[in-house]
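Lab notebook, bench 4. Still working through the backlog of constructs that have no structural model yet. Next entry is a single chain of 292 residues. Request: give me the structure tokens for it.
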Amino acid sequence: MHAHPIWLDTHAHLDAAEFGGGSVDVAARARRASVLSGVIPAVECGNFPAVQALARQCGWGYALGIHPLYVERAQEPDLEALREAAERALADPLFVGIGEIGLDFFVPGLDRGKQQRFYAAQLRIARDFGLPVILHVRKSQDELLAGLRRAGFAAGQPAGIAHAFNGSMQQAKGFIDLGFALGFGGAMTFERALNIRRLLAGVPDTALVLETDAPDIPPVWLYRPRNAQLEAPPIPNSPEQLPRIAQTMAALRGWSIEKTAVQTTSNALRVLPRLAGALCAAGFPSVAAPGS
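Model written out:
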């Protein structure tokens, strides 16, 4: 038995420059806070080796993909490079799926047609290898769902995670019906995040996973307005914040912290089955199966 609740951070960019080369220490602090492991998503082919190396150092899982904001500078051969990298990674117990991929219709001036092409191609790669996906979802819920249906995603198979979800309840149901979990993190700690809080309170127990999106999407206690006069640089969001973030989920669901940890860990392992291998590789076999 573990003395403390066990947490998984399903989305943290531990390779980000904001951590100043101290990513291994960040993961160690998270582990001391009972965040045993999680997922480091790649954002472009150029950072695949760094993400893989960091996952090995930290005992975390990782995903490989081309983020929609990086599609702008990606080239068609990058898709073949992703396919080859994913095929090689199938033998790696730390590899959990394809991500971070998706569509971003929030940032102005991006090439939507190119985003759609890269999204469809990356879904095909995931389907060809039987892998779940980690989706970037910003102002693009309906288009993402349409792409998933075209690619053959359907209920009854591990589909992945709709990261930082903030759509309608109907759109949430669309993802859940295809086998996805919805990722919730620091945004839900803001009282003004009314839509996210309504979603969090209303979706099924089995649809919720926790994430930080570190170093981004800080919780309310780390948030600093962009134009604030700061005496010191803001502290980046990090996985060690996850247990405190989870307190908001527990409060909004009416759950104990223990129930929140068990449910979200089980959900994460259901939608990202290979994450169990990452946990075993990190030395935690006793939490490597849903319901354990």
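Notes after review: The mean pLDDT is 93. The chain has ten helices and eight strands. Flag for follow-up if needed.
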